[in-house]
Amino acid sequence: MQAQKITESALLARNIPGINEKLKKSGIAIAGLGGLGSNIAVMLARIGVGKLLLVDYDVVEPGNLNRQYYDTTHIGLLKTEALKSQINKINPFVDTEAVAVKIEAGNVLDVFKDYSIVCEAFDDPQYKAILVNALLEAGGKKIIAASGMNGYGSANNIKTKRTLKNLYVCGDSMPAEQDGIGFMAPRVIVCAAHQANMALRLLLNIEEE
Amino acid sequence: MYVNGKEISVQNKISLYEFLNKEGYEIQRVAVEKNGNIVPRKSYETEVLSDKDKLEIVCFVGGG
Q1: ipTM strictly over 0.90?
Q2: Whether the predicted model's global pTM rises above the 0.90 cut
Q3: Closest residue to B31, CB basis, from A35, A121, A164
Q4: How far is CA A17 from CA A20, A22, A23, A133, A202, in A?
């Protein structure tokens, strides 16, 4: 069998016509590469977003594989490196920039300075708040955050809402007492898809949701 | 005062910090907009609320 030549236009042939050039010139930052971030990054790579900033300081562990876009060969690797390798296999025309640092209030602006759209995909709610506040206080950026996607309740409860002027939040809006039930691939990936779709919409200058 | 679209009465001269505590919010998990502008975290104690204010409060739940 003759090997088919893989071109960028062939990979993106089934995208909505007329947007590929715009996506190719765009960049999205992803803060945290767990169940949300690894899946967001892969979706944005599949649709041909030109540049992705991947931020996480952690390594892949067996317990990640129930919902994160890694496999058993990645265990022990930095998530940044494992995900770069996954994305390169899916769409080698995407430019991935990996930053393996822990995000704190003091380094947020430096790490995300070149990106106007940031997907918040952390696990810890305090770090979600640190990132979102620092970016909103700095101004000029749009953030797509996630809150509430645990368990196996109805996927229909996961929504995208523009909660603040420059903040979209995807999730089921359940209170904090629901924490700790456990995280399963389907609802986490539904939420990640909400974030990726909102990122796509913002890249196409669609604001409201 | 309106909080996340709901009208509530607010004690005169209360700070945002006191209000969030009184309402049971975990300060370390929230982001707050007052009248359309983000309130910097370092200003919560000095930001005084009045009856005319509109607050939007986002409180994050863990998981990702």
Answers
A1: yes
A2: yes
A3: A164
A4: 7, 11, 11, 36, 17
